[in-house]
Amino acid sequence: MDSFLEDYEEAPAVVVGGKRRRRKRSPATQAALHPLLHLPFLPPQPVSSNEHKLNFKKSKEACLTYIQDALLQKQWKRAAEFLTCYVESLEKDYSREHIGPSEMIWRIGTEILWRHSQSRMKEFNCFMEQMKTLGVKRYLKVCLEHVFHLLCNGQIDEAYQNLSLAESWRFGEQTAIQDKEIKLIQAYRGLLDYCSWSKQKKILLEHGEDGFADLAVEQEMHSYFRKAAVNLKEIIKIPGVWDVFVKCYVDLLEFYGEHNEARQVLNEYAYNSKFPANPNAHVYLYQFLKRQGESKKSLISALKILHDIVPSHELMIDFNTMLQKSKKRKKRQLGLEVIFAALDYAGWKENAAAWSCLARQVKQIVITEKHLDWIKQEWNSRKDWWPDFHFSRYLAKRNWQENKSLSHEKALVAGILLGKDCKYFKYVSHQGFKAQLKRFRMLKKFVTRHNPVYLRISGPPDCSVQP
To answer: Lower CB count within 10 Å: N or C terminus of the chain?
Structure first.
């Protein structure tokens, strides 16, 4: 990379008095070779010879290789220098043949300006405006990226203004070709209208008083509602993942009492086969049904699909709790399956609520000695790896030190599944006895008394299994 810059910066030699001397660069030329973080747009395209075309292609490829290397090493200043060299080479040798570097300049330049320590908002805005003039085929995409950058920097009003200008953009056939981008532009403008509506709602709920001031806030809220609802409604008709837009639109509908329409929107988003599978769609539907006080049957139905898609979702504890309260045997069995499946994931290893759910259900089954086959069915596919995964002596020590309630619940499950000689159970029960904690003495008595259950669950061939 250093040699590339050195070769680029070296001035051509001239012959004076029979001797070769290096021509000195003028200040203007030196400034061009060491530019600020300004990345200019492409000029008109002059004609070049075949030889120049070949040289241009080689130098362009080499320059892009250096740019890529600088980006991968997070050398943003260096990448900016190379990109400027790349643009300057286009100014000098760009042929009339279609090469299409404008998108490359846009994407690389945006990344550099976003990461560069000396980048300022003024320079970024200038660069994005230049990129908008490079090609109408990606005009709206550049506008969207510009808006995102403005929003990340807290410039809400400027972002809204840019969205409004982009929405009114027209350029012949290109307008129709970029119809999806137009929909996105409108959707994000609707999202900002929703944010303004939400602010007014907060004012109304917290500080609103009867009278003209209250009426003015309500009128302004309704104005924002109309603008937001129109644009948000349009984007969610298109198959895709539109979580943020759906949530905002449903919030608007619920506030104004349009519960049936909100339900229809969420059902469509969750169950329409044209939309991609999306766990959040079922989460939003479940949360809505819960707010509306729907039946347990409806809630279980929504969470059942979520379980099939993401068995490790945090709502699986709610799902298990509802299933355990059911009078139907199949649902209680499903509840056991749900909590076992959740604990298969590393993120749940120290979830005290999940272990409490499993311990409670396992204890109930052991006491009644009914449905021990449910436990055996779940344990058969896990007995080869759960002992090391959940019930090692190392985890017993750590759980005891960090969360005694967690260690109690896990020890109960370990004692039932692996017997009273399980390392995890032995360590925790011993520490509980030393600390003279009553619940741990009761735990040891319970596991010892029901140790035969362990034999029935594991079966004779597995009696010697130890963590």
So the answer is: N
Place of tokens 């600088």: 70
Rounded to 5 degrees, φ, ψ at 334 are: -60, -35
What is the Cβ-side half-sphere exposure of residue 299, based on CA atoms within 13 angstroms? 19
CB neighbours of residue 137 within 10 Å:
14
Residue 12 in this model has a pLDDT that exceeds 80: no
pLDDT digits (tens, 9 = 90+) for 394-411: 999 999 999 999 999 999
Which residues, including other chains, have CB under 8 Å from residue 289's CB and lie 6 or more apart?
298, 299, 302
If you search the block for the tokens 């590339």, which residue do you land on?
4
**Do 105 and 131 form a contact (C-beta atoms < 8 A)?**
yes
The total number of residues written for the chain in this structure: 467
CB 306 within 8 A of CB 286: yes
CA 307-308-313 angle, to 5 degrees, is 35
Residues 411, 428 contacting (CB under 8 angstroms): yes
Give the 3-state secondary structure of residue 13. strand
Kindly indicate the confidence band of residue 104, based on its pLDDT and cuts at 50, 70 and 90.
Answer: confident
* Contact (Cβ atoms closer than 8 angstroms) between residue 467 and residue 387: yes
From the list 99, 104, 53, 98, the residue with the least C-alpha distance to 82 is 104
Q: Which amino acid is at 411?
A: A
Q: Is 129 left (phi over 0), alpha (psi -120 to 50) or beta?
A: alpha
Which is more confident, 141 or 317? 317
Distance, CA of 262 to CA of 299 (rounded, Å): 16
Q: Are 379 and 458 in contact (CB under 8 A)?
A: yes
The model's pTM: 0.76
Whether pLDDT at 205 is above 50: yes
